[in-house]
Amino acid sequence: MAYVNAQGDAPLAPVSELFSLQGKTAVCTGATGGLGLSMSIALAEAGADIVSIQIANDPRADMLKEAVAACGQKLQVFETNVADSVALRRCFAEIWAAGVVPDILLNCAGINRRAKVEDFTDEDIDAIYAINQKASFVAAQEVGKKLLELKRPGKIINIASIISFIGNYNIAAYAATKGAVLQMTKAMSNEWAKHGINVNCICPGYIMTAMTKNYTEDKEYYNYIIGRTPAGRWGLPEDFRGAIIFLASKASDFVCGTSLVVDGGMIAK
Question: What's an example of a GO molecular-function annotation for this chain (predicted)?
Answer without folding.
Answer: oxidoreductase activity, acting on the CH-OH group of donors, NAD or NADP as acceptor
